[in-house]
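Reference record
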Amino acid sequence: MLVVLPDGSSREVPDLQSGAEAVAALDPKGRLSVVAFHNGRELVDLSSPLTGSELRLVASASDEGREVLRHSTAHVMAQAVLILWPGAKFAIGPFIQDGFYYDFALPGGAHFSDDDLAKIEATMAQIIAKDQPFIREEHSIAEGLALFADQPYKREIIEGVQSASALDGTELEGVDESGVSVYRNGDSFVDLCRGPHVPSTSYIKAFKLMRVAGAYWRGDEKRDQLQRLYGTAWESKAALKEYIERLAEAEKRDHRKLGLDLDMFHFPPEIGGGLPVFHPKGALVRHLMEDFSMKSHLAGGYQLAWTPHIAKSTLFEISGHLQWYKDGMYPPMEMEGATYYPKPMNCPMHILIYKSHQRSYRELPMRLFEFGTVYRFERSGVLHGLARVRGLTQDDSHIFCSPAQLGDELSRLLRFIISLLSAFGLQDFEAELATRPDKSVGADAEWDDATAALEYALKLSGVSYVMAEGEGAFYAPKIDIHLKDAIGRRWQVSTLQVDLQLPQLFDLDFVDSDNVRKRPYMIHRALFGSVERFFAILLEHYAGALPAWLSPVQVAIAPVKEDNEGYAAQVASRLSALGARVVTAGASEPLGARIRKQKLEKVPFILVVGDRDQEAGTVGVNRRGSQKPEVDVNLESFIAELIIEITPKPLEVDLA
């Protein structure tokens, strides 16, 4: 059998029966491999019998290895809870990004406290030290029900298969119509699980329990309220330490805290969750973002649109939103015999603009652009500051083009997106090309053409990308643009989607050069994603210290004493006339206190002016982030620098 090692090298190993034998032969001491890919795609335990011709060992430090490591640690955590709270009921425990969780109902209605986390961790450490193997077993449905006779949530999962009830993939792990798969470790712990797992508990090198939260069984507020324990696990103590430090840095950058500290926005309870109000400073930053984007779109050949916030139900019946998205829409309003909904998306209204009269091929591509606010009733449990809101403003564009124009238009659009995001100081991009899912609508040929056009655009752009097989929308393939921020976190921002259905549902056409009516393609595109979420990304990426051109205050001037206030006013007037946003911190407070205040507000330039500056026409300059202020800086020299810093950089893209 050909064995591919985690470093990419490969060896032929004769008479190989399991991945464990491969590890014993090729990596007897390192124990770096935790699972393996068998015959290309199937992820299996190292103990699984092998029947194919290729095995690829997976290192614990890889994405797949960490997911398996975290899943195994979740089992150990559940085992520890059952030891400490006999009679506890446990629900599901999947791995998630950078960690895992498990849901529990403790006996007698007891609740976990933060102090319990250390106790659970200590018991987990004892289990890990015993080097308990993870052993897979297969059972019939009846045997599974008997095995979990005292665990009602596990029984419900199994019974759900019998009754064909709709359960999500996480809950169905380890259960299908043919039977039940479970994993055991230790004398008493067993759980439903599809696997795979690490060979034994001693492979778990570094873990930490993070917090306790509430959760409803199956996410239904009408069902049992459970307690959720969150944790994380890594391949080494060094990796865990780095993650904890990254979390601490992320906490300092949390846009919700920065929004309050910098007086930019908040979420009044009188309005309701997920609906922010922007204060003058935040509203100004938002305006600057939108203004730059608006001017860039106009220069890029887009036409402006504006659409209302509500529409009759008939519009969303035609578009399919009431069929596919009703659960996420705000409730309807009945007025004058008609039913109205707040719009969840802008696309149906842009279609009505296109459809307002007959279109010719000479008008294509037609690029409509709008800052359109839409409303989606997100559950309170998923709301997260500006990153997940109920009223969001999309920098929304819908492009109508002929089939022959599709590939070039997508390529042009992708260059435009990367250039505009780069203008905000974001550089580290990656794309995902999401292809046709199992449940989808439309002809194969259309899907193939649209997917090929998206991949063509990606290859021309030079952006690295991966295939996300089967993760497209039910009606179209798409490209999702991801970026990494200053501390390495990945954010999904822009989306390009080739819509194969709405042009048909609304019977769109154009008259081509041969005088024949044809169906246009339609491209959905949100560049920021939403203004609110992009605002949050920028705040966290820059830790609140936005680029000077985006900063609500660009220059603060602090006179040393009252005698210098006249000169400070002259400098302020000069800078304001050049378009700079300037405040003057009068000499009524000590100078040090005034400088500290402006630094906390993350002002890019703090100018200190005293007697010597007043006589010489100079300023003292405290640049944001610099530990050493500069003195006796010629005012004209500073102005030349300032103009460069406060002027938005033009897009570096050829849209021909």
Summary: The chain has four domains: 2-59, 64-250, 281-307+346-539, 555-646. The first strand starts at residue 2 and ends at 4. Residues 193 and 376 are 34 Å apart (CA to CA). The radius of gyration is 30 Å.
